[in-house]
Amino acid sequence: MKLSGQCLCGAVRYSGEGDPVFQVKCYCTDCRRVSAAGHAAMMGFPAEAIQVAGEVKEFHSTADSGSDVSRAFCPVCGSGLFAHGSAMPGLIFLRASTLDDPNLFTPQMVVWAARAPHWDPVPAGLPAFAERPAGL
Ligand SMILES: [Zn+2]
Ligand SMILES: [Zn+2]
Question: Architecture of domain 2-115 in CATH?
């Protein structure tokens, strides 16, 4: 697929072409906080498939899995744009909410479903892990 997206103010844009390695809705506490929603919708791509234009700031934290996660956001408007982590080197995780066409995102699974708030329920019909699957 061809895709593009940007932050709220447009100071950071990205584009790319390729097939997502995976597409996930994550309800972990960190994703809930940083996404300002009940969960984060993310698409993983090989990092070289995505070109980013504009300057981002990165926030580093340790995930529940113990791996290091870096989340990039626009320093002007604060929109979260993408993340990468030591658990899956070489991949970039775009926030589907920043896509120009958000319908390009087709969730394949749900992780940390046990943490879903009642106002953002886990969709029926998707494989859902109560926590995280091994290796993620
Ligand atoms: Zn911005
Ligand atoms: Zn998460």
Answer: Beta Complex (2.170)
